[in-house]
């Protein structure tokens, strides 16, 4: 009985650590650091199941639902673009979104690799 209790407690703990709670995108408006991912991931499956295309306007977010469209604005140069969430991430602490290479080019952040951005969910 003790083993069963310990096993259940361990599984509950691990499930809690592994889960990503999806949030309601309505009104989502956050500021933080963005990064981008490209060639190394091109063609690999995203968390949504589709193949990653570095030339499309997509992004990874930890909690926004797949398919959510967000406007990302680079706060340094005021460039912006709209991306669709199709993956989970970023997996680096302190970042709020990973954008595709195409989005990074439009945001003017290829040289630096990261940028301080504002991320706003769009109501469709």
From TrEMBL:
One of its GO terms (biological process) is peptidoglycan metabolic process. Its main location: membrane. Residues 1-20 form the signal peptide. SUPFAM superfamilies: Barwin-like endoglucanases. Residues 30-119 form the RlpA-like protein double-psi beta-barrel domain. PROSITE patterns: PROKAR_LIPOPROTEIN. Its EC number is 4.2.2.-. GO terms for cellular component: plasma membrane. Keywords: Cell membrane, Cell wall biogenesis/degradation, Lipoprotein, Lyase, Membrane, Palmitate, Signal. Gene3D superfamilies: RlpA-like domain. It is a lipid-anchor. GO terms for molecular function: lytic endotransglycosylase activity. It is found in: Cell membrane. It is an enzyme of class 4 (lyase). Belongs to the RlpA family. Lytic transglycosylase with a strong preference for naked glycan strands that lack stem peptides. This is Endolytic peptidoglycan transglycosylase RlpA. It comes from Pseudomonas kribbensis. The lineage of its organism: Bacteria, Pseudomonadati, Pseudomonadota, Gammaproteobacteria, Pseudomonadales.
């Amino acid at each position: 009985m003790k083993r069963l209790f310990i096993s259940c407690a361990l599984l509950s703990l691990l499930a809690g650590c592994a889960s990503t709670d999806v949030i309601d995108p309505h009104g989502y408006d956050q500021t933080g650091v963005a990064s981008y991912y490209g060639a190394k991931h091109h063609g690999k499956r995203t968390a949504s199941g589709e193949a990653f295309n570095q030339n499309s306007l997509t992004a990874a977010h930890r909690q926004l639902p797949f398919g959510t469209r967000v406007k990302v604005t680079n706060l340094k140069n005021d460039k912006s673009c709209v991306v669709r969430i199709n993956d989970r991430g970023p997996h680096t602490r302190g970042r709020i979104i990973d954008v595709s290479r195409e989005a990074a080019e439009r945001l003017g952040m290829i040289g630096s690799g990261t940028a301080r951005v504002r991320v706003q969910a769009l109501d469709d």
